[in-house]
Every structure is written in structure tokens, then in C-alpha cells.
Amino acid sequence: MNGVHDMGGMQGMGAIDVDPNELSFHEDWERQMFGMFLAVFAGGHYNIDEFRHAIERMGATNYLTTSYYEHWMNGMQTVLLEKGILTEEEISARMAELGKGAS
Amino acid sequence: MASHKHTAEMSDTVLRVKALESLLAEKDLIDASALNELIDTYENRIGPRNGAQVVARAWTDSEYKKRLLEDGTGAILELGFSGVQGEDMVVIENTPTVHNMVVCTLCSCYPWPVLGLPPVWYKSAPYRSRAVIDPRGVLKEFGVELDAGVEIRVWDSTAETRYMVLPMRPAGTEGLSEDELVDLVHRDAMIGTAIVMAP
Lengths: 103, 199
Prior knowledge:
heterodimer, A: globular, B: about 200 residues, alpha/beta, two-stranded parallel ribbon, two-stranded parallel sheet, 4 strands, about 50% helix
């Protein structure tokens, strides 16, 4: 399987944004996503290769237009759904509940 | 600041992350204190100062340097650094004729135990795509210009292998202690996008 993630040698990606003082996490959700991914990994529920493969199947447009930790969210969610650990319905339902609580 | 559409997407992402965390906690796949511990470890405790200690040791102890270049994982472990994303370490040495750079073209593989979490630019499409076809141009964007005669070797991290560059010790540092040398070595020099400067 190949995909747009195989970027070595691709042209047209633009200039590198070198920010020497950038933070590890730009938003709190990124921090939470990082911790969550590692915690579930530490529990042995998936390995890194499965996770990478899920990210690589995100689809080219989705992959190129989302951020790094959105890739992680996509990848982890895909793996958990495929393993039957979570369902789409549960996630949507919980999002709706949490969304109602906000603002 | 963001457009309405952007705001809506970000809210979806935030909601989804919160939903995932909430469900996983309910199902006992994660617990809040373990999560915070992991975040704290990688945000605040593990970082490039680890790698700088490895470099300073290699600069001051030639037998250590030999071991480091032969068995990166083992020599790095001697200083107490090991773990996730550093299980298979290879250390590559810069010389006056060879400059090394590290990239992960497929994702963001990076030697966490010695350098902490990778910078955003390392994980970005521009760096991942161009480091392997235009390393000299990439170095220029980092303010590094090498003589035309210097060979640049770019190492593409694989599923398991993690690379760390052993930068050259700058001239004029002969009188510095190992601790003082540690202070000179910054993250980018161990990725290969910077040179170590004398103070």
C-alpha cells in the first residue's frame, strides 16, 4: 500500500516553518491526545505499526489538511473502532452529550 | 481570529478528543493520573539535555565515543537513557568532510529518550519531503551553510531505528568541563540542522 504519507522526495510542499521556540503542544487537546495515545498503547491495546497503518489510510486530502495530532486522533480512533473497543455510535453519543454541556 | 468554519472544525476535534478520553476512562483503558504522568514526563522531564550529555561524554571520553558509535543503544543506556522510541539507537558522527541529517519521511520517528518530543517542523510535510532531495537547501533555511566539499548524509528513520547525530566539537572549547560542554549542545545539532558553536 502506498500513500501520500510517503513524502520523501515530493516537491511543492513549501518552505519549512522553523520556529525555534515553539511549544510541544499548541492546544490542550493535543496534550490530552498525546497522553491518551501513550496510555492506551501502554495497556497493550495496539502496537505502533497498527497505529501508523491507520494514519496512512486516512486518505490523501484528509491527511494533508489536518494537523499532526489530528492524525493521531484519526489513527487511534480507527484502530479502536476496528478492534471493536469503541463504536461510532458511542463516540457520537458522547460527543453530543459533551457538546450540550459546553458554551 | 479563525473563520467560522475553522472554529466549527476545531470544536469537533476538541469534542472528539474529550469523548474518546471519557469513553476510554469509563472502560478502564486509561486512568487520569497515568495520563498526566505521561504528559508531564514528555513535556517537562525528557528532553534534548539528555542527548547533550551523551554528546559531551563522547567529546571528552574517546573510549565512550567508540562504544557510542558501535552500539548506540548500549552506550546511551550507560548514561541512564532508554525507553520508548529509543530501543534501537544508531549514532552518526559529523566530521569535517561528512555532515549528517536525520528525518522520518513517512511519519515522525524521533529518538525520544535522548531528544524528547520532536519539533513541529520535523513532523511537517516540507521537512519530510525535502530533507532527502535538497538537504543543502533545507540547511540554508536553518541558517547553516556547509562548504561544497562536505558530503551530506541524510538518514531516514525506519519503523524501529532511531538516529542521533554526534555533532563536531567546536574549536576553542578545549578548556571547558563536561558540564559546560553540555550547555553548548542544542537539540537541532543532534538532528543535524544546526552546528554546535563555541561560546
